Amino acid sequence: MTQRTFVLPYDGAGAADPAVAGHKGAAVARLAAAGLPVPAGFQVTAEAYRAFVDDNGLLEPILALAARVDPDLPATAESAARQIAELMERCDLPMEVAGPVRWGYARLGAQDDPVAVRSSATAMDGWPPLVGWHETVLNVRGEAALLDAIRRCWASLWSAPAIEHRVRNGIDHAEATLAVLVQCLVSAEASGTMVTTTASPGRILLNAAWGLGEPVITGRVTPDALVLEKGTGTVLERRTADKATMTIPRRTPGEGGTQEEPVPDRWRTLPVLGDDQAAALARLGERIEALYGRPLMIEWALHDGNPFVLQVRPLEDDGGQEDTEEWNDSLSGDYLWTSANMGEAVPDVMTPCTWSLVQMYMHETMPASTVPGFPEVRAYGNIGGRLYMNLSVANAFARVLGTGKRAGRAGLEQVFGRVPPEVRIPPLPVSKAEVARWLLPVAAKARLKARADGRRLPDFLASSPGRCEALRDRIQAETDPGALLHLWGRALLPFFREACHMLGAARRRRAPSLIMLRRELARLAGEADADAMLTGLGRPGGPVPAGLGPVIGLAELARGEIDRATYLREWGHRGAHEFEISAPRPAEEPEGVHFPENSASGHDAVELVGRQREAGRAAWRRFRARHPGRVASVRRRVGRWARAAYERDAARSEVMRVYAVIRAFVLRAGELTGRRDDLFYLTIDEILAVLDGDARPLERVAVRRRTYDRYRALAPYPVLIRGPFEPVAWAGARMRRTDLFDATDPLAGYGTREPEDASISGFPGVAAVVEGTVRVLDAPEHGGELRPGEVLVTSAANIGWTPLFPVAAAVVTDAGAPLSPAAIVARELAVPAVVGCGNATMRLRTGDRVRVDAGRGTVRLLTASGQDEDVGSGPEDLREPQPTREG
Prior knowledge:
Layout: E1 7-8, H1 18-33, E2 41-44, H2 46-55, H3 59-67, H4 74-89, H5 95-108, E3 115-121, E4 136-140, H6 143-155, H7 160-168, E5 178-184, E6 190-195, E7 203-210, H8 214-218, E8 224-229, E9 235-239, E10 245-249, E11 258-262, H9 265-268, H10 275-292, E12 296-303, E13 306-314, E14 336-338, H11 342-345, H12 352-365, E15 370-371, E16 374-378, E17 380-383, E18 386-390, H13 391-401, H14 405-416, H15 432-477, H16 481-507, H17 514-525, H18 527-533, H19 549-559, H20 564-571, H21 598-601, H22 605-626, H23 631-673, H24 684-691, H25 701-712, E19 720-722, H26 727-733, E20 740-742, H27 746-749, E21 760-761, E22 769-776, E23 791-794, E24 810-813, H28 821-829, E25 833-834, H29 840-843, E26 849-853, E27 858-863
Parallel strand pairs: 19-20, 22-23, 23-24, 24-25
Antiparallel strand pairs: 1-2, 2-5, 3-4, 3-5, 6-7, 6-12, 7-8, 8-9, 10-11, 12-13, 14-18, 14-19, 15-16, 17-18, 21-27, 22-26, 26-27
C-alpha cells in the first residue's frame, strides 16, 4: 500500500509539485530551493484534505449540496457554501493528519508562536478567478487554533465563487482538492506588492504601506507607489500617500487574528521605503522574475529591515486555458473609454449573442457610431466583455456639433458622468474638419428621421406590449427551424429595428439641460423647491417615469393592490440584467420576484411618490406667488425636458420588452436545434446560420464559453480606461482603482495612484443631508443585506437596483450622470442620491458612517468601520526587536 504523506517541509519530495502542495505552496518551495528569503514553514498536502473528507464521510453530502447550485442564481451557491462550512466545522482532523501538523508546528518554535495559514489551490483552471476565493488566516496561535484554521481553508474550497466556477466549467467537484501552507507570521513593520513588468517596458512598480500587507492587497489603504528602473534600481517616480490606517497582529494576549488601527500622525505621510530599500526589493523581484521567466506580482514584507517573499503570482494566464478569444477594443489605440451611461444599462460581461445585439442596437440608435476611413475607431467597444463608450469619439463629435471644446466636455459629463480635470481626452487620429465633413450631413439626416419617427412614437408606445405578446406566441408555436428563421427576418428583426429607431427619436428630442434647468430653478426657488418642481416629470400629477414603474409596481404588489400576474405583465421584462440575452427575465421566474420589506422601514414607494408630488404642487404655488411673470416660460422649459425624459424612458422600456422577445426566439432556436444554451455563445447571425442548417459556428462554442467565464470571474473594471487595458493582468495584480486606469501613467495604470481629489463627490440630487451606515453591494441580488436607513453604495445602479431605494437613507454610485436611472428614480422618490462619484466603492466599505449632502453632491466619511477598536500606538511598535526565522 502506498504511504500517504500529509505534511512536507519545503525540501520534501513533492513539495514543489502543485498537485501535492498546491500552487502557492509549490511556489514557496521553489523560492526556498533557490535560496530566496521566505518565512519558515511547512505544507499540509492535498492528500491530507482527502483523508479529512474520507475519514468523516463528507464527500457524499458535500457533492449533494454542490449539485443543487445554479451558477445563475448566486443565492444557491452561497447557501451550499454555508452548509458545507457548517458540516466541516463539526468534524475533527484524523489523528494521522493532526499528529504531523502538530509536529511541524512544534519544529517552528514555541507553541504559541504566530503563524499564517494560507490556502494553496491544486487546480489553476481559469487563473486568476481562483485568486481570493480561498481562505487565508493570519496570526494563528496554538495547536487548536492551527487545526481550526486548516479546516477553514479546506472549507473555502467550497466557497460560493469556487463552486460556481466548477459548475460553469464542467469541472468534477469530486476531483477538487486543496493544500495548505503554514508559515511563520512575519511581524512586518512594512509590506506591500511588487509588479515586475508594467505597461512601460523596463520598469518595476512597488507599493508599500505600514504593517501587514492585507490592506494593500484588498485596497483598503492607498500605499506609497514607486516606479524603478530595471537593472539599476533607480527610483524614477515616487508618490507618497497619506496612509491613514494599517493592519497589525491582534494585541490581546491569547487571541489570534488581526486588527486595524490608525497610523500615528507623524508616520502617515512619511515614505515607507528609502531609495536603497526600494532598490534592494527591485533586485529581489528581478531575481524571482528570472527564476520564473515571466512577469509576476510579488507580495513582500520587511522585518528588521530584512525582506521576505510571502507570495508570487503570475500577471498573465499560465496557459491553463490557452484556447480562448480576446475581446478587447481598448487595444485599438489611445482613447478614453467610460462604462458610465450605456455601461450602467449593460453592467454584465456580455455573451457573444448579447454583444451582437448591442452592436445592432447601437447601429440603429446611433447612426454616427463609426468614423469613415478608420473602421477600428468606434463610438463604443467591448473591453473584456463589458460595454464601454469611446469618449474620444464623443468629444470629437461634441466639438463639431457643440459650441466649443469646453462646452463639449461639459455636455459629455451630463451624459457620461464626470471626467477628472487632470484626465486628458486623447484626440482622434483625424482632423476636426474631416469629422465635420462626414458628421454634419449624417446628423442632419438623423434629425429629419427623428422628427418623422417622433410623430409615430406615441402609437408605437401604445401598441408595443400587444405586438410583443403576439410575437412571443408565434415563436412558441413554430416547430421547424426554417420557419423560425423566416419569422426572424419577416417580423422580429424589423420590429427590433423599429423599436431602436423610436428610442433614437426620443433621445434626440431637444430639451433643456437638466443641470442648467435645476440650477436656475434653485436660484429662483431654492434647492428643495427646485427638486420638487422637477418631480412628476415637471407637473403635478404627471405620469410615472418608466424607470420608476417597477418600484411602484412592487409597492402595489406588497400592498395587495395588484396581483403578481399584473406586475409581471407590466414590468416582468425589466431587471438588472435586462440587456444580457442569456439572463432570465423576472417574468420567467415569477417565484423569484421579491420586494423589500418597506413596511418595516416605514418607506412605501407609493407614499413616497405621493408625498413628493404634493411637495411639487406646493413648490409650484410658491413659485407662482414669488415670480408670477416667469411661470409660463419656466413651465414651458420644464415641460420640454419632462416630455423628452418621459419618452426616452418609455421607449427604452419597450426596447427591453422587445429584447425579452428576442430571448424567447434564441431559447426556441436552442430547443429546435437541440443546442439549448450553446446558442448564447454565438452571434445572432451565427444563430441564424445554425437554424439554416450550418453547424460550423457551433465549433466555437466551447472556446467562447471559456472566454466568457474567464472575463465574468473578474471584478468590474474601472469606470474610465485610457489606452490599452489587460483585464486579466489588472485583476490578477489585485491593485484595483475603481475610477481610473491610465496606461500612459505607470502608477495610475496599475490602480495605485492617489486621485488628485481624494474626496467623494458627484452629481447632486435631492437637496437633503443624511447620515447613515454604509452598505456596499456589488449586485442587486444581494439587496436583502441592505438594512432600513443604511446608505447604499454601489458601482452603478440601473433599473434593477431601484426597488432598494425606498429602503435606503441615501444612494451613492461610482458611475452615473443627471439623467441616469438612479438619479431620476431617486428624485421621484425624494431619496438623497449622489451619482457619478467615480471612487465611492474604493473609498468606502460596509460599516463606515458617512454624511451624504445630496444637494451639494458630496459624501463625507465620519467614522471608518472598526475604528473604535482597542488599538496601539503605531508602526514604531512593530519595530521592536523580534526573533527572525527564515526558510
